[in-house]
Design goal:
With 486 residues, this protein is an alpha+beta fold. Helices cover 28% and strands 25% of the residues.
């Protein structure tokens, strides 16, 4: 892992795989508000995904805001947000025991509540502003095949209820035994499952909606204009110059909303924020799946990893389609090759095949025959960003006045980014107070100390050995997908 974490990120590739969500591209996908770049602005935001768009909205929503310029290396929202799996799902219990051990009760509870509130805020914003993005709120279920993961889930939920309170919205989970799981959720061979509230959304359309509001408020969006370098402006330590292929722009402050690519512009986070390539597929359900469509989203959790899956809600384009991703440990050496790469123009063949086959394998006899036109509508990859402690890095770069960062969202951007953007703007405006400290986790804040931690890979995924009685029911790739073997 050390060698993979040490790889320097590149700029986003010019020829990425084609994302289901971006087909067809929106009319502002290649938008340039002005034909030429301005020489000087108040604020530069680098990145047009959910973090950058939400920061732009929050900055411009304040009265008296001056000029805001957004630079996007490719087309609008063409990075991780526009290439995700469509889930608004926290699964906070999965990290809760680690957070409780490492951070204490108050901070662990704060993180769980933050994730829950962020999901609700995303869907509420879409509704309030009439953004057509297939926003759906409902139930999700984690189908569990591994005994250690099952025991960990039970213990985590118990600790969440003790710490947050039995009635806290962030601590509401329901367990289902093997029989109920098979009957209710149509899956075979699981030890059991845990259900809770979540949702799904077309994140590409959601971000486009935010950006359209920001454009009306005065945002200058410049697509296909990569930031190549960030330098200090002469002797003024509080001002910056951003170099692009189309010229340089001076700014009072610069914000990097660049997630897995951040170390390209800010080398101190090389090996601290490490890219991870994810793989996702959109597919039509089998002939025996419910004609009215599924009524819950899914995760499938086994000993060393998981997959996640949503259904496209009624009223959306291609309603009923399944969007499934994950499987990153299914390449050689548990997917080591996916770490450190920023190449979303390619796909690992082993992971790609596993993603294509996995849904049919999990539903087994309930799947039926594939659609006559084929199972897969589209398959693609995207670049996420992971940190050494498993938390985002949010705040001012240490020792660098007016250079800000909001990145490394651990593959959970739809659970973290929206309210993180609000928090960052609060920090930039110097408006941190007791109320702010009550809702924004301290563990997410940028600091000098966080730049010294050794990267360990994806955290909170494997259950510790002390919880493992017997790792039975491990899903394995068979001829038709993940056949369940005991």
């Amino acid at each position: 892992m050390d060698d993979r974490a040490a790889i320097a990120p590149t700029l986003p590739r010019s020829n990425p795989t084609s994302s289901y969500w971006q087909d067809p591209p929106h009319r502002i996908s290649t938008h340039r508000t002005t034909g030429e770049l301005p020489e000087c602005v108040s604020t530069i935001i680098i990145g047009s995904g959910i973090t950058g768009a939400s920061i732009a909205y929050n900055v411009l929503d304040k009265p008296g805001t001056s000029s805001v310029l957004m630079l996007e290396a490719r087309t609008t929202c063409s990075g991780a947000t526009g290439r995700n799996g469509g889930h608004t799902k926290a699964a906070s219990y999965r990290a809760f025991l680690d957070n409780l051990r490492d951070l204490g009760e108050e901070e662990a509870a704060k993180i769980a509540r933050f994730e829950s509130r962020n999901i609700k805020a995303v869907h509420a914003f879409a509704k309030e502003h009439n953004i057509e993005c297939d926003s759906w709120e409902g139930d999700t279920v984690d189908i569990i095949y591994d005994m250690a993961q099952w025991n960990r889930a039970k213990k985590a939920v118990s600790e969440m209820k003790r710490t947050l309170g039995e009635k806290d919205p962030a601590a509401q989970y329901k367990f289902h035994d093997a029989s109920e799981t098979a009957e209710k959720f149509l899956t075979e061979g699981a030890l059991g499952s845990v259900s809770y509230k979540a949702g799904s959304i077309n994140a590409y359309k959601f971000v486009i909606g935010i950006l359209e509001i920001a454009l009306m408020k005065g945002l200058n969006l410049q697509t296909e204009t990569p930031a190549l370098k960030i330098n200090r402006s002469g002797d003024d330590r509080s001002r910056w110059t951003v170099e692009t292929p189309r010229g340089s722009i001076r700014a009072d402050r610069v914000i990097m909303a660049t997630n897995g690519y951040t170390a390209y512009l800010y080398p101190p986070v090389k090996g601290i924020i490490v890219p991870l390539r994810g793989t996702v597929a959109a597919q039509t359900p089998g002939s025996k799946m419910p004609k009215e469509g599924l009524n819950t989203t899914y995760s499938f959790i086994y000993g060393d990893g998981y997959e996640y899956m949503i259904f496209r809600p009624a009223g959306s384009i291609s309603a009923g389609d399944l969007v499934i991703g994950g499987c990153s440990t299914k390449a050689p050496e548990e997917g080591l090759c996916e770490w450190g790469t920023t190449d979303d123009s390619a796909m690992d063949p082993d992971i790609g095949q596993y993603v294509r086959d996995s849904a049919a394998g999990y539903f087994g006899s309930q799947w039926g025959e594939d659609d006559p036109d084929g199972r897969i509508r589209k398959q693609w990859t995207g670049i996420m960003g992971y940190s050494s402690e498993g938390f985002p890095l949010v705040g001012e770069a240490p020792g660098e006045d007016n250079l800000w960062i909001a990145a490394s969202f651990q593959g959970s951007g739809m659970v973290l980014c929206f309210l993180t953007a609000k928090a960052l703007v609060t920090m930039m405006d110097g408006e941190e107070n007791e109320d702010f400290n009550d809702w924004f986790p301290r563990a997410f804040r940028m600091s000098e100390g966080r730049l010294k931690h050794v990267f360990q890979g994806r955290l909170h995924e494997k259950a510790p050995m002390d919880l493992e009685l017997k790792a039975s029911f491990e899903p394995q790739l068979g001829t038709k997908g993940c056949t369940i073997q005991s």
